[in-house]
């Protein structure tokens, strides 16, 4: 269905951002506008999701220029899922940051940049043009630079510099890959490229280009040799920002990979083997990285890397069932990762530190909060019936069926290390007696007003309920993932949706 | 000390006098560039740059504070205003049932400007954003120096 509505979520965030600029420096007004804008955008995304599912796809040729010349926006099942996840996390983090951030950051224009970041993410998920995808990536990256550095301390600057350098490099590689692709096909529309690339005779060049894309997206989503910027950057900013980064930014790279390697390139044996090997190393190194860390947020950063390995593994298997697992895992991971970073922020408020050796007796002091945290952490491990269990079991099953035993071993090791690390966090921070006496000066959480406490805890509880809901409604989520996976395995559906059915 | 600072600001009568004449001319030229952008090289971005250069010149000849006095609102507010104009010019065609950002042409040509469409409104927004951004950056730097 051709409709302007596909742009509504993007435009809503843009409108909110512009409105926020009018109220520069007015903290309370900014908070209200941001939360209202986020809520409306969430409803719009929900409607977009529903419309996409009922109509099969939504598309729009912006400015009335027909594909492949104009810029196409298209929403299929995968895009719609990502859009809905983005909206959910953005709403949760938006509310959370209204309470958790200090005033000076908000005065620096935090909310304004935040909405631009979300706009960029939504744009990246909805665009059907490879160069436009690059532009949205840039919108996201520039916004994230600002979010990382605003009000920065020295440590934060150090992390930001690594982040900026690596992501700039990734952008350059991505842009080079687009240039080469344009050189060999003469078009930028993803669907049109997919049609024309089959006619290219130089298959070697196509494979090299596909690997250039893989490197570009790989840096952004932190895969094995190129992940080191992530653990050194993600633990520095305030937890609200880290929640968005940890939940969504790396997944944007994965989304782009899924799009490029299902629609444009059909990976050959060499590429698939490469994916599997990189997945194995990402899983193992990410998992090993968590073991000797004491800072919860550093552990979580390495867990992001480790869990990116699951997604790459699915990409390496390249079967429909593996794609079902990836899509399901994406749904689970975005929600849970954002949530754990928000939880780490609340812990900082309660204890001034996230060093697990210095934390303790959280269970005794905050039993209700600990219960919610337990739910989220167990979901991250994948204890049935919580959300993490099902995609992992699907992925294990498929890896076993494909007889890729090295990958299976890596997946199992990564899962065990995740269990070990999460249990360690739980035992040290929640169970153990606090090593030092908790005075009122340390606890910044208690003096919060009731509305402040609600704004901090409600998003966490909300996302925890969503992961519980996913766990209890596995069938419908699997059906949804199957639909997305079917579309990914049959790229002609996507191509026909953009270019119209072939005569 | 005070004299030294003034010297750095190119405090000459010639510059001041010529700025008084150049400022309106440059702004007129920037509007010309903005309009010309429809068919020929030009447009909101270049026009905005030329217009902000006019104000920068004025701030060299006098002082940033005096340049700011010419604005009834802070130049910063040109940024959201311009963005909002861009946004609305994109939304306009959707009200008529066209895709987002299509150009809507008004039936009759306007005197002097010629054909008038929503693209010109978009350019006007860009023009304002560029002036706002350049002046905000320059004035915040000159405040800190």
Verbal overview:
The complex is a heterodimer of chains A (503) and B (145). With 503 residues, chain A is an all-alpha fold. Chain A has one domain (4-499). Chain A contains 21 helices and two strands. In chain A, helix 1 runs antiparallel to helix 5. The longest helix of chain A is centred in the middle third of the chain and has 32 residues, at 154-185. The two termini of chain A are 19 Å apart. With 145 residues, chain B is mostly helical. Chain B has one domain. In chain B, 69% of the residues lie in helices and 0% in strands. Chain B is elongated. Chain B starts with a helix and ends with a helix. The mean pLDDT of chain B is 84. The interface between A and B is medium-sized, with 16 and 16 residues. Chain B: InterPro entries: CPA3_antiporter_subunitB, MnhB. Chain B: It is a multi-pass membrane protein. Chain B: This is Na(+)/H(+) antiporter subunit B.
Helix content of chain B: 55-70%
Task: Please give the number of β-strands of chain A.
Answer: 2
Number of helices of chain A: 21
Shape of chain A: globular
Helix/strand structural class of chain A? mainly alpha
Q: In this structure, how is the largest beta sheet of chain B organized?
A: none
The pLDDT mean of chain A sits at 90
Q: How far apart, in Å, are the first and last alpha carbons of chain A?
A: 19 Å
Query: How many runs of DSSP E, i.e. beta strands of chain B?
Result: 0
Q: Would you list the SSEs of chain B in sequence order as H and E? A: HHHHHH
Total number of domains of chain A = 1
Q: Based on CA inertia axes, which overall geometry of chain B fits?
A: elongated
């Amino acid at each position: 269905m051709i409709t302007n509505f596909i742009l509504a979520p993007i435009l809503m965030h843009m409108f909110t951002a512009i409105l926020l600029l009018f109220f520069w420096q007015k903290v309370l007004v900014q908070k209200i506008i941001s939360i209202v804008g986020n809520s409306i955008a969430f409803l719009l995304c929900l409607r977009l999701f529903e419309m996409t599912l009922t109509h099969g796809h939504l598309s729009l040729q912006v400015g009335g220029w027909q594909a492949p010349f104009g810029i196409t926006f298209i929403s299929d099942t995968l895009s719609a899922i990502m859009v809905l996840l983005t909206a959910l996390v953005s709403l949760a983090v938006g509310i959370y940051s209204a309470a958790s951030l200090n005033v000076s950051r908000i005065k620096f224009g935090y909310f304004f940049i935040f909405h631009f970041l979300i706009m960029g993410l939504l744009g990246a998920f909805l665009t059907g043009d490879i160069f436009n995808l690059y532009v949205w990536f840039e919108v996201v990256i520039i916004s994230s630079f600002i979010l990382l550095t605003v009000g920065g301390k020295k440590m934060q600057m150090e992390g930001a510099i690594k982040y900026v350098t690596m992501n700039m490099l990734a952008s350059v590689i991505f842009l080079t890959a687009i240039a080469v692709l344009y050189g060999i096909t003469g078009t930028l529309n993803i669907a049109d490229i997919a049609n024309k690339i089959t006619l290219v005779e130089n298959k070697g060049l196509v494979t090299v280009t596909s690997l250039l894309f893989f490197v570009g997206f790989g840096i952004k989503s932190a895969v094995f040799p190129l992940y080191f910027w992530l653990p050194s950057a993600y633990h520095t900013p305030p937890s609200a920002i880290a929640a968005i980064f940890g939940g969504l930014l790396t997944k944007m790279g994965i989304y782009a990979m899924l799009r490029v390697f299902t629609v444009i390139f059909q990976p050959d044996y060499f590429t698939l083997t490469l994916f599997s090997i990189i997945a194995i190393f990402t899983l193992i190194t990410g998992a090993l990285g968590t073991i000797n860390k004491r800072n919860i947020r550093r552990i979580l950063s390495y867990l992001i890397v480790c869990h990116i390995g699951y997604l790459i593994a699915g990409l390496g298997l390249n079967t429909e069932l593996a794609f079902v697992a990836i899509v399901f895992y994406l749904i689970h991971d975005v929600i849970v990762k954002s949530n754990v970073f928000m939880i780490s922020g609340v812990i900082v408020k309660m204890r001034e530190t996230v060093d697990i050796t210095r934390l303790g007796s959280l269970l005794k002091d905050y039993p209700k909060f600990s219960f919610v945290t337990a739910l989220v952490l167990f979901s991250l491990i994948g204890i049935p019936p919580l959300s993490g269990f099902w995609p992992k079991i699907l992925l294990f099953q498929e890896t076993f069926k494909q007889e890729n035993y090295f990958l299976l071993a890596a997946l199992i090791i990564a899962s065990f290390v995740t269990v070990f690390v999460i249990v360690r966090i739980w035992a040290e921070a929640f169970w153990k007696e606090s090593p030092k006496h908790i005075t009122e000066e340390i606890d910044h959480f208690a003096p919060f007003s009731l509305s402040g406490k609600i704004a901090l805890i409600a998003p966490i509880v909300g996302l925890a309920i969503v992961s519980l809901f996913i766990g209890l409604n596995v069938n419908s989520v699997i059906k949804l993932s199957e639909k997305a996976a079917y579309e990914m395995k049959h790229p002609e559906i996507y191509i026909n949706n953009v270019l119209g059915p072939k005569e | 000390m005070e004299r030294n600072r003034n010297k750095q600001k190119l405090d000459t009568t010639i510059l001041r006098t010529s700025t008084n004449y150049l400022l309106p001319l440059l702004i007129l030229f920037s509007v010309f560039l903005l309009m010309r952008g429809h068919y020929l090289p030009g447009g909101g971005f270049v026009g905005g740059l030329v217009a902000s250069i006019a104000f920068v010149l004025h701030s060299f000849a006098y002082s940033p504070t005096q340049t700011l006095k010419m604005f009834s609102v802070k130049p910063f507010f040109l940024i959201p205003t311009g963005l909002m104009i861009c946004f609305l010019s994109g939304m306009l065609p959707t009200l008529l049932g066209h895709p987002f950002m299509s150009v809507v042409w008004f039936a009759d040509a306007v005197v002097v400007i010629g054909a008038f469409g929503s693209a010109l409104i978009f350019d006007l927004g860009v023009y304002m954003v560029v002036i706002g951004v350049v002046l905000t950056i320059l004035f915040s730097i000159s405040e800190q120096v």
